[in-house]
Design goal:
The structure is a homodimer.
Chain A: H1 13-26, E1 35-36, H2 38-45, H3 49-62, E2 65-68, E3 72-75, H4 80-104, H5 107-125, H6 131-148, H7 152-164, H8 166-173, H9 176-194, H10 198-224
Antiparallel strand pairs in A: 1-3, 2-3
Helix pairs in contact in A: 1-3, 2-3, 4-6, 4-7, 4-10, 5-6, 5-9, 8-10, 9-10
The structure holds a DNA duplex.
DNA sequence: CCAAATATTACTGTATACAAAATATTGAGA
DNA sequence: TCTCAATATTTTGTATACAGTAATATTTGG
């Protein structure tokens, strides 16, 4: 939709601001509830209020910020309820995605998926790789599946739902055991897709998401005890 | 998300402009490919360019307009491919919705659903009722199911997907036979939900969407022959 | 009369200015 | 010292101004 992510010099400032603010929110640099004040943001980023406001409109529509009437924007708070709502939808759409991927992935698509998995695996093997790299490699792997569905709308919605959970994805990547079991799960998914075995693929992806859900809920429980 | 739809006088102009433009696009008054020029829109709506631009940012993020670099916004074109992409996702999420509705709808929710259906039925019976009323009553019926899921994210995404197809929904309501079969389908869905029979409910809702898909694709075929 | 070069126009992208509203602050009186 | 009102400050919402670029019209040479 908006996002092709190549920051070239012809990209409008609003896009740059949008990407910058979104990254800050998803990485937790801007905390939930924090106010986004236009003038200070404008000063910090060295632009005027106009592109700041337009970026906020985009973030608002994506659900990452909420507008308080006459009080401006603040970073959206995520409740356990909302997170589980997202996961419920996501599980359904991930299932649809893997089904369609089984039907529609070409040999090249499958090669790209294997390639992405190998990359993720190498980051897991490397003890020095940081969480951001790891998370990106995981995203890239799942993206190859999404792309395999050939359904642009599905790709877009899934990418969006994933972003809503970025902060929590980081959590479950901290655990080394979790990482290696992710590799196992990825490989099972790949094999199922390769043999076009949609029943198996659905089973594995469901398990994959369920595992994530468990870890995320546990980490929220832990966090709410602070 | 953005949309609580009560146009009160404290609503920012950007919201009013956003809702106005969206309605125009969905009702086909602004045609696909048509350019949205800021100054003329500003003059027409009696506001300055600022709220127009912010509304365009929201529409852009919703996918209803696309930005051509340095050429501004134009109404997004919908291809058959895109429409079928939307329908594929929608079928999956409608299925999820009816499942969760079976689990979670309260007696009041079910009463509201029956009520909405009766209203739709009376519009169908009335030969004078216009298509817009009919479409709204149909929307209201399905909304009661969405609300029954208690999943705000799901409600929001389904509402959004439905909007993408507004133009085509009108098509299949033109046929009187179609309308009465809609009533039958609605009733079947209600009974399944009432008895918490999720298998049956899923079967009926799938059929419901499949019927829509058939009619819409037929109407697009017909239209593309112009 | 046609084509290329140039001038003009129109529109976007960005910055800034101004008004109204909300919030914070100050000060007077009890 | 506390409370409440008046004032100041901050911040949003909207309008407008200005610059740069792409599209279009115009002119000029062949």
């Amino acid at each position: 939709m908006v996002n092709e992510n190549e920051i070239n010099e012809f990209m409008p400032l609003r896009e740059v601001v949008f990407l910058t603010l979104r990254k800050s929110i998803l990485r937790g640099e801007l905390l939930p509830g924090e106010r986004l004040m236009e003038i200070s943001l404008a000063n910090k980023l060295g632009v005027s209020r106009t592109p700041i406001r337009e970026a906020i409109r985009m973030l608002e529509h994506e659900g990452l910020v909420v507008m308080k009437p006459r009080r401006g924007a603040q970073v959206a708070k995520i409740t356990t309820q909302e997170l589980n709502d997202v996961l419920e939808v996501r599980k359904s759409l991930e299932t649809l995605a893997i089904l369609k991927a089984c039907e529609r992935m070409t040999e090249e698509d499958i090669a790209a998926m294997r390639q992405a998995e190998r990359r993720f695996e190498s980051f897991v093997a490397d003890k020095d790789s940081d969480l951001t790299e790891l998370a990106e490699a995981d995203v890239a792997f799942h993206d190859t599946i999404y792309q395999g569905t050939k359904n642009r709308r599905l790709i877009q919605i899934l990418a969006n739902l994933r972003e809503q959970m970025y902060r929590f994805r980081i959590e479950y990547l901290k655990d080394a055991d979790m990482r290696s079991s992710l590799v196992t799960e990825h490989k099972a998914i790949i094999e199922a897709v390769c043999s076009r075995d949609s029943d198996k693929a659905v089973r594995y992806i469901t398990e994959h998401i369920d595992n994530q859900q468990r870890v995320i809920n546990a980490s929220i429980e832990a966090a709410s005890e602070d």
